[in-house]
Specification:
Strand content: 25-35%
Radius of gyration: 24 Å
Largest sheet: 9 strands, mixed
Distance between the termini: 52 Å
Number of strands: 17
Oligomer: single chain
Helix content: 25-40%
Shape: globular
């Protein structure tokens, strides 16, 4: 892909400008307006999402959908941390090339496969600028696997929207269909890593795929971003779950952080399906000094009973997924609150529990009202100075808990 000097200079001069304002301005005759607007908009998104790429002014980017769907630098580096070094790797759904780039660091030979010619041209340009030797193949996953075999790792990120831009809910509905393709994937690779939408049901994933060795539920700042599925030929053991909540402040240390540190229990929670199934939780009869809310990855993976057993804290209700204890668990994988007071939910709760509270962040878990409905009923303004949880305890008792975040 080529870009003339005038267009390149214009982009560099206006990277931080408002794209809408630029669109209304007059452009020099030798400047490609469409390319300028596209590149500046993409750069502004990627400056936060993939900062190491955005810092290179010679890289070129694609249409908005590819930017929106691409992995962040943080999650791409996490993927690289959970795969073993090897000889040959292929990304069958190359897209913008973020995952291809970071995963390729672990392999001697790397392939990027993409059926959109424009994306292939951009990837070839960008890999060259970045000094990374990755072979670009303008093809689709099925066609590529017919001609190429024996990989240490196959990575695939099936598209989660159809031609009408509707979000998919099953791996079967995505493209390529990795459920139909899995025999071919397993036949041609020692390991397969699949990136799936966090909207998919994990139990459905396990039922749809064979030889599922690991499932990683990945969040950034407590927002689930992706579900990673590792399948391995011949594996018939128990699926291992890893729930990891990455923080943006780890960004700077990722280039030197060890694989073992990335897998540290300090930033992740690991368990098997059997451990959750056989866990015996204890249940609270009262709200104690501390309240615990598991992070989004544990909720997504379904580690509900095991949290109580592993940390020695009491669950409020079988369906509430909130926990309490008198002793603080400092390394709890989620938010920890100090309880100020608690009261049964009723007509007098505002006067008794919240008489001096005008502002609070309201959260509901297994409660008849939504957070917005409860906030309105309590006439509270949004604020993180205080937290009010509406939930249900054993015996179906509805309560409000006033807390402060630790």
């Amino acid at each position: 892909m080529t870009i003339n000097a005038a267009t390149r200079d214009f982009i560099k001069q206006h990277l931080n400008d408002d794209v809408r304002r630029i669109a209304l301005s007059k452009f020099p005759d030798d400047v490609d307006k469409t390319l300028v607007l596209n590149q500046i908009e993409a750069w502004q998104i990627l400056s936060k999402k993939v900062p190491s790429w955005a810092s290179n002014p010679d890289l070129l980017f694609s249409k908005h959908l590819s930017i929106e769907q691409c992995s962040s630098e943080l999650t791409a580096k996490y993927k690289a941390s959970i795969v073993e070094k090897g000889e040959v790797f292929v990304d069958l759904t190359g897209g913008l090339g973020i995952d291809s780039y970071f995963l390729s660091e672990k392999f001697k030979i790397s392939y990027y496969v993409e059926n959109q010619k424009e994306l292939c041209d951009l990837a070839e340009h960008n890999f060259g600028v970045l000094g990374r030797k990755i072979t670009v193949d303008n093809s689709d996953a099925e066609s590529f696997l017919k001609q190429n075999h024996n990989f240490d790792l196959i990575f695939v990120d099936p598209a989660r929207r159809d031609i009408y831009n509707r979000k998919m809910v099953s791996l079967h509905d995505c493209s390529p269909d990795v459920v139909d393709l899995q025999n071919n994937l397993l036949k041609n690779a020692k390991n397969v890593l699949i990136k799936a939408s966090p909207m998919l049901d994990i139990s459905l994933i396990i039922n749809e795929l064979m030889n599922v060795k690991e499932i990683h539920v990945v969040a950034v700042k407590n927002e689930c971003k992706e579900v990673l599925i590792k399948i391995e030929p011949g594996f018939c053991g128990e699926t291992r779950f890893t729930c990891v909540d990455l923080r943006q402040d780890l960004q700077d240390i990722f280039p030197v952080i060890s694989t073992e540190a990335m897998r540290s229990e300090k930033i992740s929670f690991k368990f098997t399906e059997f451990e959750e199934k056989t866990a015996i939780p204890t249940f609270a009869t009262t709200i104690q000094k501390y309240l615990y809310e598991p992070n989004a990855t544990l909720m997504k993976a379904g580690a509900f009973k095991l949290v109580s057993e592993r940390f020695g804290i009491d669950k409020l209700h079988i369906n509430s997924h909130l926990y309490t204890s008198d002793k603080m668990i400092a390394d709890f994988p989620g938010r920890v609150f100090e309880v100020v007071s608690c009261a049964p939910f009723g007509k007098k709760v505002k006067r008794e529990l919240l008489k001096d509270v005008a502002e609070a962040s309201v959260v509901t878990r297994n409660f008849p009202l939504s957070a917005n409905e409860l906030r309105k009923s309590l006439s509270l303004k949004e604020s993180d100075k205080n937290f009010v949880f509406g939930t249900t305890m054993a015996g179906e008792k509805k309560v409000l808990v006033l807390c402060k975040k630790i």
